[in-house]
Design a protein that fits this description.
- The structure is a homodimer.
- The first copy, chain A, has about 400 residues and is of the alpha/beta class.
- In chain A, about 45% of the residues lie in helices and about 15% in strands.
- Chain A is built from 20 helices and twelve strands.
- In chain A, the strands form two sheets. Chain A has a nine-stranded mixed sheet, sandwiched between helices.
- In chain A, β5, α11 (about 195-205) and β6 (about 210) form a beta-alpha-beta unit.
- In chain A, α12 crosses α13 (about 250-260) and α18 packs across α20.
- The interface between A and B is medium-sized, with 29 and 28 residues.
Chain lengths: ~400, ~400
């Protein structure tokens, strides 16, 4: 028989958010366990209404079944909803409006996200840029430039607000006047490291700051691997820029691969300890990245089309953003003539290219080779050539 | 009707070498053309004895058929044989004893090689190490170290005696007291650049200096791409260390791929112009190399077995050779215990590894991960682990 005070309590809690938050707080249940229960009973509310026998019948440990039966987590959840409101953050629930569709696809999506800033930014095409907290000057500048170039192409830059590569990535996106999302390993009201408070506010204005941890959660080390799955989960792919042998960024890369996301890595001198991680990932099959195009060209065609640089974006970008992308570089006259003869949607045979450009054949071939070397043109089997994005 | 003086001449020339050398010198025939004719008529001698009608019947241009019919090249070849002897070099003929078996497999193997030094070095397991003539200090040190480490494992280091990466590779092999082969883009008696005369003599003593060009041939630019096919042709694979956008080393890489040889590249900072080539090759599928093991593990198992470091080799190597290979690094106690439980010839399931090592499971798992990260252990599907070479 269910204790009477529980019936009383349940009438007070009419917002379903509370049940989601509550289940997230049941010790020993875990995100996967919670999703299984919700799947079985139909809703978090139904989980909390189940009998002890039913709960134990699901194979839960006795202590967990008992905790849910006595409505563990609900009281805290109720308080948390009010506190979150005061802290100016929204609660975004799994499966409901605003929940990022890509994140929903992973094996263990958070039940609830605490979000400060623009919830919509979480559902836009995004790429994660992560790396060591102790980068070299090279790592910092590369992370900044790649994030800047990618943000200019309307990609949201997701990272972890950490020192080093993470903050360089957020700053690169901000410089491009693009959007960036920071996923915290602490409560959304606990900014770590402290010196990133200003950066965190800039992130909120540009995109969003998010966390799945309850308010006030300290940034303890065990939170970060858990947090990393959200960083990769929000993104089409993750770029690893500098990571030493035991860096957490390698965990993010592994999670990204497990989530079927693209894994990208920026190579570095093999004599640099910070290049160990990216170089290892490349050996294991990650795509080598030395410019933003390497990232975008791996995305599905519909995504690529949406990301094509618009005139507006280029103008915004010109306002201070540094770019060294090959598209912006002026091509030599021969290269230009040949590039213009090529198409992005259809490969052309080398003879027909030579026929349509009014240049001697050796110059056309030389231009094709140099365009291929520059990554603007791709050679397909049988001497066919196609423009890359 | 064949002029009488030709019959007279032919009786003087009884060494078949002369006919091979002669065909190599017929203008407009080319190496592929020469091989086709030899295949059709059975031998170079038979080609020179063919009638004009027969030669024209092979589809040769009239001028070429005529040249062969009037025995073009034979007189020079005869002189060349004497001169080569005086210059202290052997002539190694296609298909005969001493001709490198791997080189024989390529599409356009030289008809004759001029060799100074140890002909046998050409038939041993070899790897090419090539790159830009204008390297950074990083490129020099990496080429030197990789060549040194690989030469210690009994691999012959093949390169082009050029300034920069090539000479660093030769020197690395020499430091390891290993063997090295230099392939010239000039006559074997024309050392270019001149300041490499001493290096060339060291190469002759350690391995061999070779060329397919006639004695006295100047190092003209068009010779180098032709020469490059021999560099890759002699080797199981080619390692590209630093190459800017239009470097000849990228041609060597392409030739190596066309010859079905492994292509390896050493990555570098994407902000370095000299890293453009290797990074591009890696994007196109070349294997990233950051230590000698990355190279050796791509070779077929029988080759790998022959290359296993012998006690002798390690001792020789210790005499001055710098090595940073991971094998030499001392492992942590946990790593050592786990590594010793693993086998190189059979993958073991993670549970059986945990069972056979007297350490708590988390420490075994951590050690496995770190061994995998160090490249000493490979994880196979289904949580099975195997020692890498």
């Amino acid at each position: 028989m269910r204790p009477r005070w529980l019936y009383y309590k349940m009438t007070l809690i009419d917002d379903v958010t509370c049940y989601w938050l509550g289940l997230a707080r049941v010790d020993g249940l875990g995100v996967r366990g919670a999703h299984q229960l919700i799947g079985y009973f139909g809703s978090p509310q139904a989980v909390y209404q189940a009998s002890l026998t039913e709960l134990e019948g699901c194979g839960l440990p006795a202590s967990v079944a008992r905790a849910i039966f006595v409505q563990a987590g609900l009281k805290e959840a109720d308080k948390e909803i009010g506190a979150a409101e005061k802290a100016g953050c929204s609660l975004v629930i799994y499966g409901r409006e605003g929940y990022p569709p890509l994140l929903q696809e992973i094996g263990d999506p958070p039940l609830v996200l605490y979000v400060r800033g623009d919830v919509k930014a979480l559902s836009q095409h995004a790429v994660a840029v992560v790396g060591t907290r102790r980068p070299t000057a090279y790592g910092i500048s590369v992370a900044h430039r790649l994030a800047c170039d990618l943000a200019q192409r309307q990609l949201v830059i997701v990272s972890g607000l950490a020192r080093g590569i993470d903050s360089a990535a957020h700053r690169g996106a901000l410089e491009a006047k693009g959007k960036t999302v920071a996923v915290l390993g602490s409560g959304i009201d606990v900014i770590y490291p402290r010196e990133h408070k200003r950066l965190a506010e800039q992130v909120v204005e540009s995109g969003a700051l998010i966390s799945e941890f309850p308010l006030g959660t300290a940034p303890t080390p065990e939170n970060f691997p858990i947090r990393n799955r959200i960083i990769s989960g929000l993104a089409l792919g993750a770029i690893i820029v500098e990571a030493a042998e035991y860096s957490g960024s390698l965990i993010t890369a592994r999670l990204a691969a497990e989530q079927n996301r693209e894994v990208f890595a920026v190579p570095g001198n093999i004599t640099s300890a910070q290049a160990f991680g990216p170089n290892l990932l490349i050996k294991q099959g990650a795509k080598l990245v030395d410019q933003w195009l390497d990232v975008v060209e791996e995305f599905p065609a519909p995504v690529r089309m949406q990301l094509l640089p618009s005139a507006d974006a280029s103008e915004t970008a010109a306002a201070g953003a540094q770019t060294a992308s090959l598209f912006e570089q002026s091509l030599e006259p021969d290269q230009k003539a040949v590039f213009e003869a090529l198409r992005a949607d259809e490969a052309l045979f080398v003879d027909s290219i030579c026929g349509s450009v009014s240049l001697p054949q050796p110059r056309v071939l030389a231009a094709l080779l140099s365009l291929e070397m520059s990554g603007l043109v791709k050679q397909l089997p049988g001497k066919n050539f196609i423009r890359k994005l």
